[in-house]
Amino acid sequence: MTNQDNYWTRRMQSGSVSRRRFVGGAAAAGVGAASLGLVGCGDDDNKSTPTTAGNANLTPTNPTPSAETPQKGGTLRALANIGSLIDPHTTNTPAESLSVWGRVGNTLMRFSTKQPGTTEGDLSSGLPEVPGDGTLLTFKLRPEAKWQNRAPVNGRAVTAEDVKLSFERIKDPAILSPRGGQFGNIDSMTVIDATTLQMKLKAPQADLFAVMSDQYNFIIPKETAVKGKDAIKTAADVIGSGPYELDSFVAAQKFTLKRRADGYWRPNTAWLDAFEYTHQVDPQQVANAIRAGQVDAVGLPVDLVKTFEGDKNFIITKAPTPTRECLLINHGKERYKDPRVRLALSRAINRAQVYATVFGGGGVVGGPMTPAAPFWALPEAELKKLPGYGDRATEIKEAKALLTAAGFPNGFEETIITVTAFDTEKIHEIVVSNLRDIGVTVKTENVGTDFGANFLPREVKREYTLATTLFLSGGYPDAQLVLYHHSDTKTKGTRNYGDYGSPALDVKLEKQSTLYDLPQRQQLVYEIQRDLINAPGPVWMGSRSTFGVWSTKLRNVQQYSFAAAFWEAENVWIKA
Hints:
With 576 residues, this protein is α+β, with helices and mostly antiparallel strands.
């Protein structure tokens, strides 16, 4: 066992943490499936326990009694935005990556549903052996894992060579994978035998396991991998080791999956006969379709979700996403070199108001780590003790005192850029109002409606003073902390668009990246978040949520705040 395995075994056996309390204490709720247009996080013991974390208006429920016996049969019908790229290593959209490959394939590692925020083996039999300095990883594959019985693999065992060539394909610049850089720290891969793969890293990288669990990094057969960039173009090219086979695929129209005829290598899973996805992107049409019984599961915005509240024909699920709202500060501007001014702005922001007003209760207040990563995010009780998360009157009083100490007793005027996209302009209205409470008068510069073309370049080029914005990254520390706060903006803090810099924090950021021991790393990640809240870089507000509406005939619906299409593929069934 690795340190990670041993730690959780000890904790559970000793009774020092209950699994339910561990999950629930993270202030995370909800489901989805980017696969079904949703994302979420919920209980790990499959029991029916509603949670209202961060949401007083909507109560996600799971009415499946734990004593129910799963039934085989039925087709789960859903709606999705169906693109055209079905190569998991090149696509960037959920329908093709999760709704197809989340049913058809497996990853080497996957995110744990028992301890959200950690990882477990998928094709790997567990966490790898990590001896010595942490740069040599040895993965043992599950010998029972088999490819689907389709040519040219014909049901053979998944091998270490398949895994090696899959990762090499993702890394290959000729493939043009958006995830190619994720594996840049892998120096070499060696196949020891059919079920053993050894990786040599350039430096220890604890989050490599999370990267391998990414919704796009599926393992494909070596016979497919060696065909290069155009290897996966049609439904016939989609061959996986997962519980379902892709039966048909028409871009922007429809695709269907059927349970693999030769049986999935994980016993007592994959209860559904099939999945059927139809293209639809209009939210009102999506809501109409599930209400009419034309489909069984959809993702919807909060205003439409509320129309299903109290309807016993549906299950509502909710989860925070890794999308984080933010007031970005340009530390190159003279005024914001003073940490007192930055802290005053942070204390002025009414985070609870953002999620209650803009998202109708569909969000969770958080800090530098998204609440969608409950293992890593500061516990809510601790967060409330930190500046910016306490009593509103106290926060305003302290913010004004900080500005006075910094030489701005009457506040100041400032220009903030924003964009009319992804509700950012609505968040900005609250920011303007909140800053007015401490004497900061805001002039708004709205750059239009194109986030990618007009807004992001301003951030990247540092052509702003303050910016009301949002960021999306994976729910693990390197993606949430290093990427946005390390002062090396060329190779590590590549999204540190505010040029925040702290040599002492850089040391901590780099150290946590190398720690494979979970409790040790968690405490350092907590410390880093406290540092960033007390002396802000960006002003983080929290994470918006995503919602799903499910027919009650679907059973064992669970909630995870990460890409967990495997849960529906292996565990959801339809009650006859």
